[in-house]
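User: My collaborator sent over this chain with a note saying "see what the structure looks like." That's all I know about it. Can you take a look?
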Amino acid sequence: MDCVDAVLKSLRRKHLDAPSSCTDVMAKRLQNLLQHLSGILSKAHNTMGNSSSQGQHGATPKKTVPVSRASHTSATEEPPDFLVRLAKVLVVKSLDEDNLDGITQRIFLKYICKTNETLGKRLFRFIITHWQGKEAPHPIGYRRHSGKGRRLDLLSKPAFLSAASHIISLLTDADQLEFYIKVFSHDDDKIHRGDLEDLMFAAYESCAVAHKTCCLPDDILAAVVTSAMHGKNRVSTKYLHSWVTQNCPRLVMWLHRSLTHTLTVAHRTITHDTEEEEEEDDSDTPILDCPAKSSCLSLHPALIWLLTCSLPRLYTRPAPQNKAPDKLQPSTSHLLLDPHVFIDRMISAISPTHWLPLYNSDTHGLSINRLQHHVFGYPSATLTFLTAEDGNLFCLACDQAWRDSQHFWGGDHCMCLHLTPEYRVIEAGPKIVYFNISSRGYPTGLQVGSDHTNRALTLDLNLTLVKYRRIPFRLRSIEVWGCGSSEAKEAQADLKKREVRDTENRRKVKVNKSDWLDNPDRYLIELAGTRLSYAQYETNAPGGASGS
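Assistant: Without extra context I'll predict from the sequence alone. Here is the result:
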């Protein structure tokens, strides 16, 4: 034992400040071997000591399981083969480009987080802190920094494998959110406002829509930070986890998906010096069919991304219309036999939703009749955006077709959100939507909320004032977007055509003289004091003149 410790100390003193090279790598391997032998000897010594202690006292000692900070997984679990290959590639790249044995921060940012530097720096530091223990052997070329005993820009291969295995094992939204909150809060019980801002922008940058617009989403993402921080500079990480789970539970879904995708395929792309030509398809984020019909402020891509994080999947993954149940919902056997149905299923599984513009007050006019004409008859989920003064923007998500009724309606996926200047879900649940324009004796207009004493949102029949928790704001504009499939829009168009045909048929009804004489409408008109001309029914009128 003393000889091994002496050799280790001499190696560390010799290579404390020397740069790494091939000779240093061999020395490093020798150092690791000696360290391994030292551990075996120490373990054998402890075992002998425990045996003697047991013999002296005659009792079975408590078995102590060492807890290592270098791994959060079981020691018996081996990392996947693709992670082992990736770690080897990163170590080789670090040795070739930076002349250091290990994984440098520059290599980590270049190949693992190349499109998200904010996430890369935070994640690299978090891995070193939690998976590369304080007592880990120092690599050759190590230099002490601030007396902390470890280098913050060089990651060991075992630590990388342990961290990567832990990351790809995060399956639920709650586990993923908890992990990334720890990464950006430096594993503290409190998280600062700046750290939350970095988390928001890192999550947004990992989404494909972030690279398809020139407008900055500062105000939109800042609304989430403002609402989550609740006017404070620091909040508890448990409170933040609860708030995000309630208001936007899929906030880090794209961030985690992008990182796991890189960890899975990077060992191939780095080895062959190739990059993916196309970004991974972000099929969960809806696409606007007519972006020009919406203002950039109301439906910015960042806002669509946030809604995808908050809304139920019904609005981003609509179910097909029940036009042909036998074809759209076949059994497994029919699915395998019919290639057309199989192809339709595959296309619908990878294609993003296209939100269709149904009504825009700037284009169609701000009127309750125009709103009813363009929205009614659409048999699928809709999103209604109400823009009010002082930068207030509200969203009403309805999972059922709009109706004129004196009763509340809506399914389990109905939701009302306040988007700006603060982002939060203000109401959710079934039967929270009320819309009445024709029934007398009942309140008119639009009402949202389950509490009859304090509605979450109300809109008068003249479309002039919108009240949020009884606070009035002057209405600026209204937009309604359809979230259903293409069959929903076709169904609405067919309904409009039938209504037009029925109206034309009623106009073409011919009434002869005998039918008009017995018609009750004739007597009602005469009782009102008006005598109409019936010249078209008089066949013997002299000269064809009409008499009154």
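A starting point for your reply to your collaborator: The chain has a mean pLDDT of 76.
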